[in-house]
Structure to design on (393 residues):
């Protein structure tokens, strides 16, 4: 709407489409189809649909379109396509760009299902993948070739919160003509300007911070209009990964408070990580903006703040980590993140259970590692809860 609007204004107003009733809150257009005034009008719309013309909800829907425009404006992307889940977005972004014989370079530390798409699905269709340690720029330089089509990474990795120098990786990729696809969930669109840093395509699971209250699955792929309309949309609209209008409405409501929530959660995470550092019961406190983080210089350069996630390595291994989880009273055991409720996960036995011990070790997923998504509760209460659970260990 207005290029000059700042983030919070965009998050409340961008993309809104009002019906003839002038409703204040975005309407949920719970319809799969749309009617045409005449046979000629139907023909014309199938030939070329205008901006406010829709054909079928698998292709697009007014409520979904409002959400796509709002998040594209936030990210500074020309366009976007919303999907049924974050994984539909990752799959769509990659599958739409690749064909048999292509080469992809990816960071090794990935969300489990992203790893499955690269390692199992894409390779099955004849795409060659090279995995690298994402924080090792020399490894990226060695792996990216003249025929590399796509470079894939999570800007802030799960669960060890490694920070990849997206700007440097994008330079390496672009020098060889490869496109950079970034899964930016952990960094959030509030703290990371992935497109400005050189990403060509940015993917979010909107299930996380964007809904922010643990209700609906969703995803979105953002990029240039050319990419979204010519490459991505044909793939997604024919393979059926569309976001439901109801979920798009939930995401629109989530967007209104996204900046406030992410700021409050980040303030809590920063306070708690700082307070816990040096605690003898912890082998390590991992938070991107702590001086002790191995990638702190990169983190401070590419992320305005340290984000809403922190990881703790509890001295005493898995038994100690389980005692810690079971003793928490406010922080709940679950595997979502970016929620208003603080959530704790033991990656080695849940989200990363599938990996071999060697793979876990290579990724730094130790038996004592716990990942905490800081929510909207009072940070003093959360810190007290974490400390009493450490006492119980
Ligand atoms: C959750 C998540 C996904 C998958 O999103 P869904 O909405 O659960 O499909 C992908 N990447 C990252 C980094 C995630 O945290």
């Amino acid at each position: 709407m207005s290029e000059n609007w700042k983030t919070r204004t965009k998050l409340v107003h961008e993309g809104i489409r009002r019906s003839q009733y002038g409703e204040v809150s975005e309407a949920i257009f719970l319809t799969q189809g749309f009617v045409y005034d005449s046979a000629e009008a139907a023909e014309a719309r199938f030939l070329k649909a205008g901006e406010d013309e829709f054909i079928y909800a698998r292709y697009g829907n007014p409520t979904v379109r409002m959400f796509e425009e709002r998040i594209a404006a936030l990210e500074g992307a020309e366009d976007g396509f919303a999907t049924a889940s974050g994984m539909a977005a990752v799959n769509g972004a990659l599958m739409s760009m690749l064909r048999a014989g292509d080469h992809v370079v990816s960071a090794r530390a990935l969300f489990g299902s992203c790893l499955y798409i690269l390692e199992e699905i894409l390779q099955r269709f004849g795409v060659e993948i090279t995995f690298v340690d994402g924080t090792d720029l020399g490894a990226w330089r060695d792996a990216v070739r003249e025929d590399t089509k796509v470079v894939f990474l999570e800007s802030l990795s799960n669960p060890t919160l490694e920070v990849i120098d997206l700007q440097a990786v994008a330079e390496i990729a672009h020098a060889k003509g490869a496109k950079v696809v970034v899964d930016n969930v952990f960094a959030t669109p509030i703290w990371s300007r992935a497109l400005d840093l050189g990403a060509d395509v940015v993917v979010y699971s909107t299930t996380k911070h964007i809904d922010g209250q643990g209700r609906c699955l969703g995803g979105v792929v953002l990029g240039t209009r050319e990419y979204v309309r010519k490459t991505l949309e044909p793939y997604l609209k024919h393979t059926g990964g569309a976001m439901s209008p109801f979920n798009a409405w939930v995401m629109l409501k989530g967007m209104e408070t996204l900046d406030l929530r992410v700021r409050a959660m980040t303030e809590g995470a920063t306070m708690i990580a700082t307070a816990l550092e040096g605690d003898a019961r912890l082998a390590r406190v991992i938070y991107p903006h702590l001086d002790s983080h191995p990638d702190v210089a990169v983190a401070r350069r590419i992320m305005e703040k340290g984000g809403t996630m922190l990881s703790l390595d509890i001295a005493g291994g898995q038994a100690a980590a389980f005692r810690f989880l079971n003793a928490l009273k406010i922080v709940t055991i679950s595997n979502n993140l970016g929620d208003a409720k603080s959530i704790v996960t033991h990656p080695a036995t849940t989200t990363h259970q599938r990996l071999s011990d060697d793979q876990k070790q290579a990724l730094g997923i130790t038996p004592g590692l716990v990942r905490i998504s800081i929510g909207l509760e009072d940070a003093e209460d959360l810190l007290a809860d974490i400390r009493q659970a450490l006492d119980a260990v």
In short: The chain is about 40% helix and 15% strand. The mean pLDDT is 96. Residues 150 and 165 are 17 Å apart (CA to CA).
